[in-house]
Amino acid sequence: xxxIDALRCFSTVAQLGNLSEAAGRLGRTPSAxxxxxxxxxxxxxxxxxxxxxxNKLTPLGxxxxxxxxxxxxxxxxxxxxxxxxxxxxxxxxxxxSIPSAAGLALPRSIASLMDLHPHLKVELRDMDSxxxxxxxxxxxxxxxxxxxxxxxxxxxxxxxxEDSFGLLCGADHPLALRTKPPTLQEVFxxxxxxxxxxxxxxxxxxxYALADAKLTVHNTHSLIAMAQTNNWVTILPKSVASNLxxxxxxxxxxxxxxxxxxxxxxxxxxxxxxxxxDFANLLLQSDWT
Length: 289
Prior knowledge:
The protein is an alpha/beta fold. It has helices at about 5-15, 20-25, 30-45, 60-85, 105-115, 130-135, 175, 185-190, 205-210, 220-225, 275-285, and strands at about 90-95, 120-125, 145, 155-170, 195, 215, 235, 250, 260-265. The longest helix is centred in the N-terminal third of the chain and has 28 residues, at about 60-85. The relative contact order is 0.14.
């Protein structure tokens, strides 16, 4: 049977490309680590490294390394979750949220929840909407905030708020300096950055622009940094742009009336349902505008 320890030994050697350095990191002797690798290769019936120097992986080694990284990450996350739960007998709430919510009512709601439950522990992770949904389904989050209406098994979905889309560009960009709101056609005449949130807009002109965009940016911080150069523009929900610096401009777009829905996702399998309901009530009663 293949053990997690064998995968960790192999992955560490594959990452560092040096047996002695990997042995030092793992707290083992090089000979013991070498034996572990030989046993793994014997179990698989094939070599994982091209040479005895362990600095180049075989094609099988590359695939085993990829899969081992996934399993090790899941294992370590599981161990961390178990230890956190054991250390929080009076309550632990795991929150997964899109980053823009952290700049709105989420911090105040967490503070109010911890006032209600002084011994409560809270874990907060920011991620995109797809990862929020996955975290709820996998039990890695008890409550989540995500874009769109999500239909998930054993997860209650409630609309938290809606906000409008608009143009995001640098404060000195020509579209920021004009007096009238630009049209979609005028926006797309400039170098345009595609992003996932634009996918919530149900307009043919936007879909065509996304398909033709030469630059796609998946991270909001990178999107903001690119826009600050005054060379690129994009479309984002207003709440995402609410806490941006003075180097950026957010403007309405003439003819764009679509709105983004942001939903509250509540797990029905949480360990502390009463505390979770208190938190959900605080979030639903908050001002998200």
